[in-house]
Amino acid sequence: MLDPDASSTLIARMGALARTAAATLAISPDAQRAAALSQAAEAIRAARDTILAANAADVARAQAAGLSGAMLDRLRLDDARVAGIAAGVAAVAALPDPLGRVIDASTRPNGLALSRVRVPIGVIGIVYESRPNVTADAAALCVRAGNAVILRGGSEAIESNRAIHAAMVDGLAAAGLPADAVQLVPTTDRAAVGAMLAADGLIDLIIPRGGKSLVARVQAEARVPVLAHLDGINHVYVHASADAEMARAIVLDAKMRRTGICGAMETLLIDRDFADPVMLVEALQHAGCEVRGDPVEASIGEIVKPADPTDWDTEYLDAICSVALVDGVDAALAHVARHGSGHTDAIVAADEGVAEHFLARCDSAIVLWNASTQFADGGEFGLGAEIGIATGRLHARGPVALEGLTTYKWIGRGTGQVRG
Amino acid sequence: MLDPDASSTLIARMGALARTAAATLAISPDAQRAAALSQAAEAIRAARDTILAANAADVARAQAAGLSGAMLDRLRLDDARVAGIAAGVAAVAALPDPLGRVIDASTRPNGLALSRVRVPIGVIGIVYESRPNVTADAAALCVRAGNAVILRGGSEAIESNRAIHAAMVDGLAAAGLPADAVQLVPTTDRAAVGAMLAADGLIDLIIPRGGKSLVARVQAEARVPVLAHLDGINHVYVHASADAEMARAIVLDAKMRRTGICGAMETLLIDRDFADPVMLVEALQHAGCEVRGDPVEASIGEIVKPADPTDWDTEYLDAICSVALVDGVDAALAHVARHGSGHTDAIVAADEGVAEHFLARCDSAIVLWNASTQFADGGEFGLGAEIGIATGRLHARGPVALEGLTTYKWIGRGTGQVRG
């Protein structure tokens, strides 16, 4: 294991190289950054056999180390997955340039012409786990937005990541952009992550991609700003005015379409005045979902498993759902405020006044009316991709894509103005 | 002195009250928040004698403690200053509402209508020093943007701050808004600042207002996001094509209009091809500025004081200026990148191509062409006020006013959409 000083030295050196590369990227033409990613997509396709061989070595090592089925599945690549990685990079190449956009402009009474213009953030650190596709996805988004990126993937995927990283660098080189714009931390030493989290001034933003323990560690240790979400404890509130069939469809989709994603519903809130709460609970159960609730509830108490108090604060990421009956929209909002994680919450209601009451008051990154929480996704929101979903309150909230990987600067053009 | 636990308990209690108040403010009508500030301005005017008496007690205590002239001046209020504080609060009341604005909106192919809407950040902590006007200025901006605020002013101004805080609370009460929207930390214990900086989850954003040692402590210790600038090591680069008279006027204003503000020029970069560097140095010297430079420079070496290497990294905040001769715009940019603080940098040039080259490549929060760096101010930028100037790269850069005190949420209005 590297000692902390060696890790700091490594990250400082990578950070300095990244800063220099970032300055070049920041003034590179749109077409050059797009070309680098198109070329990188081609390079990934061309390197398919190399990438699969590297991945096979990772998988073999992981199996020997006794990795579980789900983790192995996240690690494993095949022809289709490599093609998907290349297609993802090509899709980012095709997105509109986020740089140079004028946010607003004005001419002051003294004639000074001011504008706020989108520029890159600078150097972004990505800390991730076993999915090798993040190497390409995250690098592509960072480069498209003019940023240099330092990637630190999971040790179990190191060979796969190296092979994909080499293809990304080939793309940069083919387009005449500096290779240091996309760097992969060469060591699998955990101390390197600590050095990245402490690299205030070298790295401008850290984005963790992975499970809750990774995100929690990053949030707890980082001295660098972090864009992330820890939990997705998402609610669907079914109001008394809800159309029963719409409520059933949304609840089923929000919970059961995919249970392991951060946008999945974890708690169902049913208004006491809703006509048929049993129907909703049974629909979930028939779909294979365990439903936990208060056994003393007259309507649903007999058909649910007893919930304990921790259930309301639990992100199951599984075919399990907690359900509570609430007295009206304000009680639903109070439950969400107390137990939610500020990710994605939804109301199902025909009453527009109640829906707008909920939309205005629910303080989550994403608030939906008559739609499934599983729409919480950059692609579904029309962003073309996403680097992650943020539940912090500054800079960017909800799905973060290219715009969230930029900042702005003020440019003032004068004719000799002095303040006097 | 309170022990850390007592401070944490105090801040946790204040934070919980602030969170509740923030929820009310977030949905309060524009007119109500504006009225609260208009009423607070009136209350400050009505309490003038009380405020001045409280301030006299602070000043007497500070004098007895041996406070210096500049610090006493920052602390001392008089009729005109109290009137100015009230006028500042009234001016914020008159600013347009930053909440509810739609940043962008789209309807997805599935019919889901998405929008990003400006909402408050939540609970903001202000840590400041001896200027009592910050109590009113910062509170007014936070409330206008729908946030609750926890104020922690300097111990030397505690009586003045209490009197001004009481008037702010009167304004809130008169408009029917919760008093807890503006809270003043009741203790002058330094441990309370530490508790605020550690209050992740209770306080959403910390803004330090004061000298460099305060800002440095906040940036070093905070577990809560911080909006601030540490230094304003600002440059004016005079290109060979610059009009000599315009360059003289801008250099003089940038350095000497006010030497103690963060937008003041600290280093003058003169192109070796500029016709008359001596004229610029002598203009500064005639205005009373000490000029430090390289004594071996053929043109200006004999008239400057010798600079040492630390001069290029020094924010003098005084009538002192470092000057360097550089070989062209890229050398100027390299000097700024190496020694600047990312605050405000300017070029004086008649050559538009060179100017745009500089504007595109200078990576500071504010970059100016043919204008004085002393325009770095929210009021001068048309923002109506400012809570401070930020040199971080996330969320907000340069002068921060109402928009920087908001965030956004995504609202989606559907008709039963499921992801399927």
Automatic annotation (TrEMBL), chains A, B:
Pfam families: Aldedh. It is found in: Cytoplasm. Residues 6-287 form the Aldehyde dehydrogenase domain. Its EC number is 1.2.1.41. The gene is proA. Pathway: Amino-acid biosynthesis; L-proline biosynthesis; L-glutamate 5-semialdehyde from L-glutamate: step 2/2. Signal peptide: none annotated. PANTHER family: DELTA-1-PYRROLINE-5-CARBOXYLATE SYNTHASE, GLUTAMATE SEMIALDEHYDE DEHYDROGENASE. Catalyzes the NADPH-dependent reduction of L-glutamate 5-phosphate into L-glutamate 5-semialdehyde and phosphate. The product spontaneously undergoes cyclization to form 1-pyrroline-5-carboxylate. It comes from the Bacteria. Its main location: cytoplasm. It comes from Sphingomonas hominis. Belongs to the gamma-glutamyl phosphate reductase family. GO terms for molecular function: glutamate-5-semialdehyde dehydrogenase activity. The keyword Protein biosynthesis does not apply. Keywords: Amino-acid biosynthesis, Cytoplasm, NADP, Oxidoreductase, Proline biosynthesis. NCBIfam families: PRK00197.1 (NF001221), proA (TIGR00407). This is Gamma-glutamyl phosphate reductase. InterPro entries: Ald_DH/histidinol_DH, Ald_DH_C, Ald_DH_N, Aldehyde_DH_dom, Glu-5-SA_DH, GPR_dom. It catalyses: L-glutamate 5-semialdehyde + phosphate + NADP(+) = L-glutamyl 5-phosphate + NADPH + H(+). Coiled coil: none annotated.
